[in-house]
Amino acid sequence: MKVCFVGIGSIAKRHIRNLSEICNERGIELQIDAFRRSNSVSADNLQQINCIYTSAEELPADYDVIFLTNPTEYHADMLLKLHDHAKHYFIEKPVASLNTVDILKEIPYREDSVYYVACPLRYTHVIQYLKQEINIEAVNSIRCISSSYLPDWRPGQDYRETYSAHKDLGGGVAIDLIHEWDYITYLFGMPSAVKSFLGKVSNLEIDSDDYAIYIAKYDNMIAELHLDYFGHKSVRTVEIYTDEDTLVGDLIAGTVTYLKSGKIINFPADRDLYQKRELEYFLDMISKNGNCSNDISNAVKILKLTQGIIE
């Protein structure tokens, strides 16, 4: 299998590590190239990168997969520019920024190609448990929160210089933490109405939104969602209020707790594993011509949902 990574940041490095392990386990010969602005790459990736390209004109046109792991602002433009260079595409979330999402309409999509947008939290033990065990008809409301401190996100990097800090680069907590809306719609579908409040209230030195609050209406339930960049103690939970009990899924601790009955389910550590499971699913999908569970159309709907827009 011949693949190319556009951008070699921390996310790409994790994907390269997981992809290498999967291909080794499955006996798949793997060639990894990189497309980036410069031809330098960190020493820990040198042994896995075959060729580094800096020009689209020089880039081969026979890749099985191109992984778009560059900053969000450039996803759509790169997909358009490199569309003829690969059979399938794995696009990091979000699919595009709000400034560039319309570029996606210009792409001549192929029916036999997969355009998969990453949605890794779906593959965590907690979300998979809830997907299998929840009776949606019995849910009255849900309340989700993802709160963390932006300066702690990327150790060794000045948070003020990351894309998250800059709205024009696709930054902002609503976009960065699009995972929450993804798993909410994965579990419960799209809401019929949503109210949103986005802005900046903290002393973080950023020009992007540091909070996003939503209230969404479904036919038979209500959803509340709180996202922020300024929580000094990381919290990532989903509370589900049903007719029989209240469940709390903790995606950091890897637990599901039933508050009334006292039942607690503990899952094993999941960080690299759930992203590895997502890659396994993607490889199965492109090899077996399976249906894409999060295509560009669905990813655009979720992107717009972060702005309180329902289509």
TrEMBL record:
> Domain Gfo/Idh/MocA-like oxidoreductase N-terminal, which positions?
2-105
What InterPro entries does the entry give?
A: Gfo/Idh/MocA-like_OxRdtase_N, Gfo/Idh/MocA_Oxidoreductases, GFO_IDH_MocA-like_dom, NAD(P)-bd_dom_sf
Q: Name one GO molecular function term.
A: nucleotide binding
Q: Name one Pfam family in it.
A: GFO_IDH_MocA
Which SUPFAM superfamilies does its entry note? Glyceraldehyde-3-phosphate dehydrogenase-like, C-terminal domain, NAD(P)-binding Rossmann-fold domains
Q: Which residues form the GFO/IDH/MocA-like oxidoreductase domain?
A: 128-247
Task: State what protein this is by name.
Answer: Oxidoreductase
Record organism = Anaerovibrio lipolyticus
